[in-house]
Amino acid sequence: MENRTYTADAEPGERVTVAGWVHELRDLGGIAFLILRDKTGKIQVKFAKDEMDDDLVEAGTSVSRESVVTVVGTVEEEPRAPTGVEVVPESVEVVAPADPELPLDPSGKVDAELPTRLDNRTLDLRRDEAKAIFEIRAEILRAVREYFREVGATEINTPKIVATGTEGGTELFPITYFGEEAFMNQSPQLFKQLMVGSGLERVFEIGPIFRAEEHNTPRHLNEATSIDFESAFIDHREAMDVCEGAVRAAYEAVDENCREQLELLGLADEFEAPEGAFPRLSYGEAIERVNATGELDEQLVWGDDLSTEAEKALGRDVGGHYFVTDWPSEIKPFYIKDHDDDEALSTGFDLMHPRMELVSGGQREHRYDELVAGFEQQGLDPDAFEYYTKMFRYGMPPHAGFGLGAERLLMTVLGLENIREAVLFPRDRQRLSP
Amino acid sequence: MENRTYTADAEPGERVTVAGWVHELRDLGGIAFLILRDKTGKIQVKFAKDEMDDDLVEAGTSVSRESVVTVVGTVEEEPRAPTGVEVVPESVEVVAPADPELPLDPSGKVDAELPTRLDNRTLDLRRDEAKAIFEIRAEILRAVREYFREVGATEINTPKIVATGTEGGTELFPITYFGEEAFMNQSPQLFKQLMVGSGLERVFEIGPIFRAEEHNTPRHLNEATSIDFESAFIDHREAMDVCEGAVRAAYEAVDENCREQLELLGLADEFEAPEGAFPRLSYGEAIERVNATGELDEQLVWGDDLSTEAEKALGRDVGGHYFVTDWPSEIKPFYIKDHDDDEALSTGFDLMHPRMELVSGGQREHRYDELVAGFEQQGLDPDAFEYYTKMFRYGMPPHAGFGLGAERLLMTVLGLENIREAVLFPRDRQRLSP
Q1: pTM, rounded to two decimals
Q2: Which of B123, B201, B395 sits opposite A67 (nearest CB)?
């Protein structure tokens, strides 16, 4: 609609065509109001019943809520109107009528349960709060990409249909690929590593990952968006620097560019970008601190993974983002390199938000013989991964990187209760549609 | 490596640590050169055999090509060196040795066939030309996203695991999803439409699509990257405006920001962004022009689709990008709206490059009854798509959009012969790995 005026741009004195949804109808007897909503906001349309053509009044007052209408009229100042202006209509056209029975109420006056919202995302995202979440999501992805480009990384796209998974056949969705068995990729790990050995050296990818995990929790998805970074000639410490920079870039972009959305989410006052460097706790320090909180029924001992309860206790104790480094090698995947001076210690790291793990990363094993031995120790057939291991014979530089879950990042940035609020159409064990 | 200097930044007089691959070794008797390559370029390292420690000379001259090395030394001016400077080394460390037998030659002196290149993408992307293609690809994606944001679109991510395909069960890869039948999505079409009915109104997505087509040609892939745009309250003409803007933004970004890469590809002189508006030919005009070329054995008649030969003849005749509009309704998918004043004519459009189709788009059917009837006429069960059609009962605005193939765009921008050159790890009937 080339002659359309967004409601936010409607200036007093102008003759405008506004288009959007019927947000609300109020009939006060001699006068009636239609509140029209578009992506920029809302505007009041006034029907003075005695002064206007009956057909026009009928059109503007009998339309059902959430119908799509086009209104031509003149914008006038009206201090009592919610936005200080109102439209005095000449014509109202119902472009797409809505059933009077709505599965959820986009005005937000009636609360809806999450499953109902997810079944009706179109209506759900007519609510200011839900829309704000996804505007912020888009801004975070923009900011993170910009940050990666600033540190010299090239955006890549790696295949989602693969012959083998990153860590073997478990937790993979099988697909039939022209009669062959294939899988949906659970991580771009192997492919981004192949690219750091190329002339690109430093790469990033933001794309879907697929995990056939049976988990059904508020922080697991079976299809998620992974923010991946990998670079040649850096170690795990430098990878942590980039990781911290990416998370910080996300917060700062939201702080600077999404004030309106934060307002709608009721976060305008409390929102702040994290200050200061993220503490880096070794695994050993981490379990000591967890034990010192006294919050766990059973003390952690060396070699234990950090349980959800342990992570929560530590998160409360630290009070902000923190890294856990220098894990026992046996807890971390075989493609993560051990420290040169202590093979029992891995260079793997996790970035933790007090609520949950956000990132997993580390320096990678770049030595061919050690890599192949790792596959064997893991019980995987190195031959199945030959497309990957082979390239390590032709000059694979030392490299490090990480994977950051986009939905978990958004969830922690905004304090969302359930990860399903951070993705438009979540996929979990029960949900394959819409 | 915090103290690493990129070869492009090495200034005479500096003591530097450079790291990269052994691009070339030249032994001239008393003097030998190692050409070290990193992501920014190359630098000559000089070994004066009589003046230097034997071990140092041995380390620098016995290393195999494509090994990864770190060299510490002093940068000196040397007019005879390819870049006007050279490094006089103090130490050479072989960080990752390469097998002497390489499956392809990254120096580009020995040509490799495409399958060999694709099997060894790590080595292939050490070649300047291959690397340049993917740097340009990243820049195109950046520019297109920026353009979409400029026209007010919000980035979205829609699911790749779906219960039903966009146009039914053909050409879909089946997956097993926790015991249920599901598919990998062939297009975000239905999901982006659901989002234009939300408060976002205008959205874009750049993500993978999956098509189980049996085609095995230089311009088909079974996994590709789709650049999708969809907006409420616009018609097919306005969608064509945005489509043209996106393609133009891609060319202009390459023109402005990728001169070095164009140079490496031998395109620096001939490359130019398209000038002037893309002509918009109706289908009727298009078949007349094709017939007038006299290049087809058989004249086209109304209702014929444009064959590859017809597209090529028309492309030569027009000489640049062009749209084909107003197709016979029966050739276009049912979810594309027909003209209100002529139901036999579709609002669907294609954007053509002289070499191939790039885009398919149109105004969509937003009326519930007509949409459901369309499913039935197509032989599809509307109930299977209820998650989608249901939302059309609650105020779905008129809307239009398009899908643009990222690989085809890159292929036509750079004149690549085979679409597999435009994707890092292509998937086709024969290729599932790497």
Answers
A1: 0.97
A2: B395
